[in-house]
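User: Hey, quick favor. My workstation is busy. Could you predict this chain's structure for me?
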Amino acid sequence: MSTTQSKLDELTQEIIDKNICAELKAQATQLVMGDGNPDADIVFIGEAPGKNEDIQGKPFVGAAGKFLNEMLGAAAMDRSDVYITNIVKYRPPNNRDPLPQEKAEFWPYLLRQLQIINPKIVITLGRHSMEYFLPDMKIGDIHGRPQHIAVRYDNSDHEMMIMPLFHPAAALYKRSLRQTLIDDFLKVPEVIKRLND
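Assistant: No problem, here it is.
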């Protein structure tokens, strides 16, 4: 096991021990921490686990996950190359949107998760994860455009590259977004290449 994975496991245990989002935890099957390569250059962040994710303990395993896998394939990537997580790590009842206080409670743990993995780019999927990194921005205006930001935690500023994308579930409901999301997704390898140069 990599040292990165063991640090993530410790963080997972801390979330459980501290009873983060106790009301959500009480009605969920399990904590859904993340899945993929703990040493990945790319981290995808969705909003919260759904029914399938709650049962399997992995993010993005339902219909939206299948579409995410397709797009990874189209961009010559695989789930094992990237790390996938959510801002909220317990399933909200009936798949409702996560509440602001639920996101706020999990936010410091998400930042620590990113600090451990230390990716080159963070790709937010949907507005729930985007608005924490890019408040006052509208996803319709900035999707597919990488943004350099500084996020403050542990009393210091941390530089990050954020690329907001529409949520794969939105593209399943709204056909017009599907091609937009695929087009945005296909830019990811080029962005990574530029970061590596």
